[in-house]
Amino acid sequence: MKIIVIDGQGGKIGRTVIDQLKKRFPEQELLAIGTNSIATSSMLKAGASQGATGENPILVASRDADIIIGPIAIVMADSLLGEITPAMANAVSASNAYKILIPTNRCNHYIAGCQAVSLSDAIQAVCDEVGRMLSL
């Protein structure tokens, strides 16, 4: 399965997701795509198999990804303080990949109905869902 993890800013969410996924599924390849080089570097240090930075890698990788993981902001144009371009948000949204989005009530949006959970609890839920998808 082709799993990509997308993150921006400092890459903390993506880094933590990759770290936890590698612990649970050590043989699974993970592609890290950062909206900037700091985010990409952070995810590579966490154990991503490959990494790329910027808009075009998101456009290309989203075409044939099986699973896309990232903060919910990756489907909202101009989010992450403007790091997510409209083309990036569209590519992720339009992808046939199964999307596992991590709710965050930041960057001028609020997800109604989502209870406030810690980042570690949200990432645990991500790993559980990836495990379910890998066993299908």
Classified by CATH, the class is: Alpha Beta
- The second-level CATH architecture is 3-Layer(aba) Sandwich
> What is the rounded Rg?
13 Å
Arithmetic mean of pLDDT: 94
Could you describe the 3D structure shown?
With 136 residues, this protein is of the alpha/beta class. It has a single domain (3-134), classed as Rossmann fold (3-Layer(aba) Sandwich), CATH 3.40.50. The chain has six helices and five strands, in the order E-H-E-H-E-H-E-H-H-E-H. The chain has helices at residues 12-24, 37-45, 55-64, 79-82, 86-94, 119-134, and strands at residues 3-7, 30-34, 50-53, 67-71, 98-102. It has a five-stranded parallel beta sheet, with helices on both faces.
Brief digest:
By secondary structure, this protein is of the alpha/beta class. Helix content is 45%, strand content 18%. β1, α1 and β2 (30-34) form a beta-alpha-beta unit.
Fill in the keyword field for this structure.
single chain; 136 residues; alpha/beta; Rossmann fold; five-stranded parallel sheet
How are the secondary structure elements laid out?
Layout: E1 3-7, H1 12-24, E2 30-34, H2 37-45, E3 50-53, H3 55-64, E4 67-71, H4 79-82, H5 86-94, E5 98-102, H6 119-134
Parallel strand pairs: 1-2, 1-4, 2-3, 4-5
